[in-house]
């Protein structure tokens, strides 16, 4: 049985596991098998999971049941983290970018971009 982990610790712990799997046997680990197959395979999985997440969101809108949406979003986040890990990046890089954008209105940012071009 898997041990419980605090949700605040998940990204850090998962990042360590994904890094360690780069040196693991592809036959004994799904993440190692993805690293072994390479970036194109990982990106193919991200694309698949993205489509599954979109379909789950549309289903949730119709049925009012969001369980599948949460499940598919977890698959998408997971495979995106594998892609970042494969490229030598991690969730901290993305969180830093989101932190940089914090309190910056998306409309203001877009307007600033337009006035620069
Ligand atoms: N969070 C996940 C996680 N989420 C999803 N998956 C796997 O991602 C795959 C999703 O692929 P699909 O749904 O497309 O199913 P599939 O048809 O079997 O996939 P393909 O044959 O097309 O590759 C499944 O095999 C899931 O088990 C995950 N595999 C691993 N993790 C984490 O990564 C850790 C390391 O995993 P291993 O490397 O396998 O030990 C685990 O302890 C978990 O914490």
From TrEMBL:
A matching Pfam family: PRA-PH
EC numbers: 3.6.1.31
Coiled coil: none
CDD domains documented for this protein: NTP-PPase_HisIE_like (cd11534)
Pathway assignment: Amino-acid biosynthesis; L-histidine biosynthesis; L-histidine from 5-phospho-alpha-D-ribose 1-diphosphate: step 2/9
Family: Belongs to the PRA-PH family.
Name of the protein in question: Phosphoribosyl-ATP pyrophosphatase
Organism: Marinobacter nanhaiticus D15-8W
Taxonomic path: Bacteria, Pseudomonadati, Pseudomonadota, Gammaproteobacteria, Pseudomonadales
